[in-house]
């Protein structure tokens, strides 16, 4: 659960990394594109793993969504 | 047909009276006043009839009766119980413990005599 | 180039397919076979309404204009989804437990079911979303125009407006058909959601197809593409840090504050677990959607004639390479993006409008109350349908008025900023219990105003709404009030400027006003429900008194929920209360549940108001809470009383038990006493009777015997008399009937009398008495006869029971404090320790040595006498023999 909370912070940090690069050049732009998509995929994979683990570890964290409406 | 009576009683005047009544009829009366040694006295003397008071110093008549009924040789010994308390529960107690007869003080002399006679079948 | 007619035909066919999909999904759902309709996949795909035509067409245009910045629009939502555990989970849970129907409903419900807030948020949403809808209409018409340009015979530029109108009308029809089938907005719109999921797939496939075509069809694969990117103007674009951060934030906020996103994310959510899947699947979707944006933009810039609209590269690039099929697919993708957004936005907005504006108006217009007339169901549905039409009409009008001039992306961001104004109230509302309605209103109004002033109105262009001089110099020439340079902040990007000021002042107003006041009771209750939704997932305790007529409530509920559902609800509630029939007791719990059910149809505030009209109260007031508190206090007092009573009862019971025990004990004592008395009486009588009979019989009795027997009779008669005397004496003493005859006397005299009475003085007994006459000279005022009786008894006991060979008795007189003590100590064996406690009890003869004729009453009588005289008698252990101490208060003696 703590990992689930930390993940977006990690993502935010990584996504903001390009801001630290002061020098902008044609080559840099392509690099940034690759970098961002790489981070993106890593985040997706981590989130996927986390959701599976949360699911398994804590089946009761979610109640059955529907109230019985007859 | 023996005519030996053991009177277990602690009141001297009553002892005197019963001894007189029975002796006059030809019984041999021995007396004992102490509850504690009463049963030994019974075993020792082997009387034909025991007249047993309930209120005795040292040991109650009921306990002595229980011993008499419990001992193999004395189990069938005729026992006439006397008590001055005269309450129903005493009579019931005596009957449940196997007293042959039960009489309340004061008693009639002829009743005592006839009961003793009865008990030995004379 | 495909003919325009065929394109229209394809488009119509596509729409028909969507209708069919929605129709069959709806059919399946109503047949109870929800199955895959409720799968996490469908949920995730439905979230793709986030990707509108703005994304589909606009992202490429955005990239062509501003480089990588377009990515922020997807990175924000990605972070929020990935961090679902923080907030989305809570939002979804709240949405479920409180049966939230829209974001306006959420805010309204959180702040004490305030309809004011509902109206504000609804207006904000409508104002913020209308341009967005216009944007979708514009993109569809633009995409039509792309095809039309090539087929100019069939298409006149003036037809653009007509196209937009047709599209708007078609969307309105679809939305009304599938969006207002169920009244309960909290129920899933299976048809709509399924159609949107299909559209989501279409737009993703279309964009990927175009992207693949561009990389491997136009460019020479990945390597070539990278070179082209580096060579393109996009690579030259400046990287603006402020916008990068600001837009990420805005997009992140938009993912749940946009009405349509809230609709699919929270309201349409069927299962919280779907959120876990969406947490990675939706970012994946977004990632794929943006994967080929840069390549398409680069190729578009490179291949399309200068001045062509980069927003349409997705269409124009395939067209220019004569890929008609691909272009058609891209067209359908864009069409899907636009329509799905409009449909969901229309549903979300219409729910808000009907629940927060139309229904309250209708209710107040129908001031006779909800029970009396009208089919509420029909009213709500009509309101919702009209609202849908109204929203689309507004969008169309906006499209017409602005003429579709503004760049798509900027409209999107303006909209984002507008709805993001809800953020402080929303976040504050679900994480901070101290947030108040006034704070929320203040924050929203400040944010709304600043947004309109600094961003929305200027977006129409100088001279349209705001004059050029106002924009340049500020109102009335006040420079620091310039819409795009507030407080003298100049040179900032207008969007970031607006976002910064509106969000910060909004938040400031929200927190400041919240902190300056106190939430009302209702807000407190709801606040607790929202903030601690995971601790207690139940609705607010809002109804304190069940005064409503169940029948009225049933009538009203039938109108809103429909007869079947309402009756079933009431029947279940009645059954749960153990009642038969349709009318349960209107307990707070039932009212609360009913209100929640109704809230699913008409929103929390309206539902609360409707039930309130019948129940006779519309909100929880301080008085109510006081009443609850009073009740609680009364209950506590009552239970305290009960407790006291039960304590009293148990005390009484204990006393009774004690009394009973005492009685039982007394009864046992009485039995024992009677038994003793009987024994003591019968024993002498036995002797008397026996010897009497012997004497009566006559016979050969000697003279000596006769004398002996007569004297026995005499002796026993005396014993009997003495016993009776003792008994009477004791009885009198114990019953307190004795009258004490107090008179002065001297202890010496009394002891003299006692010794004389026992016959010890003249030496006839063998007991030697030792006295100390000097100490005995104590003057007394007491009942001297009784005291003497005690002394006699003690001396007689010594005579009877002292078992020494030379019996001796010491009588010692001492003064012990206020008392005078007379000790009687003999030299016998004394009394065994275990018997010392009982010697003063009646009939407590320790042995059978009753030759002296004692019945065991002597010491009992002594004790009674001494207590009557105000003194006492105790056994003194450890004196080498039997020792009794008689004590008498000296004070009393001296007073005489």
UniProtKB/TrEMBL annotation, chain A:
Keyword Transmembrane in annotation: yes
Transmembrane segments: 32-50
Keywords: Membrane, Transmembrane, Transmembrane helix
Protein name: Uncharacterized protein
Automatic annotation (TrEMBL), chain B:
One Pfam family cited in the UniProt record for this chain: Response_reg
Alphabetized InterPro entries for the sequence: Bact_response_regulator, CheY-like_superfamily, Sig_transdc_resp-reg_receiver
Source organism superkingdom: Bacteria
Domain called Response regulatory: residue spans: 4-120
Any one Gene Ontology BP term: phosphorelay signal transduction system
Modified residues (4-aspartylphosphate): 53
Molecular-function annotations in GO: DNA binding
Keywords on record: DNA-binding, Phosphoprotein, Transcription, Transcription regulation, Two-component regulatory system
PANTHER family, per the entry: PROTEIN PILG (PTHR44591:SF14), STRESS RESPONSE REGULATOR PROTEIN 1 (PTHR44591)
Protein name: Transcriptional regulatory protein WalR
Organism: Actibacterium lipolyticum
From TrEMBL, chain C:
Residue span(s) of domain Histidine kinase: 676-892
Keywords for the protein's UniProt record, in alphabetical order: Coiled coil, Kinase, Membrane, Phosphoprotein, Transferase, Transmembrane, Transmembrane helix, Two-component regulatory system
Membrane topology of this protein: Multi-pass membrane protein
Entry's Gene Ontology cellular component terms: membrane
Enzyme nomenclature, EC number: 2.7.13.3
UniProt key word rRNA-binding: no
Transmembrane annotation, as ranges: 6-25, 41-64, 70-88, 116-135, 163-180, 192-219, 244-262, 282-305, 325-349, 383-401, 407-432, 439-460
Pfam families: HATPase_c, HisKA
CDD domains cross-referenced by the UniProt entry: HATPase, HisKA, SLC5sbd
Compartment(s) where it occurs, according to its Swiss-Prot or TrEMBL record: Membrane
Group of enzyme by EC: transferase
GO molecular function: phosphorelay sensor kinase activity; transmembrane transporter activity
Coiled coil: 628-676
SMART domains assigned: HATPase_c, HisKA
Reaction catalyzed: ATP + protein L-histidine = ADP + protein N-phospho-L-histidine
Family according to the record: Belongs to the sodium:solute symporter (SSF) (TC 2.A.21) family.
Descriptive protein name: histidine kinase
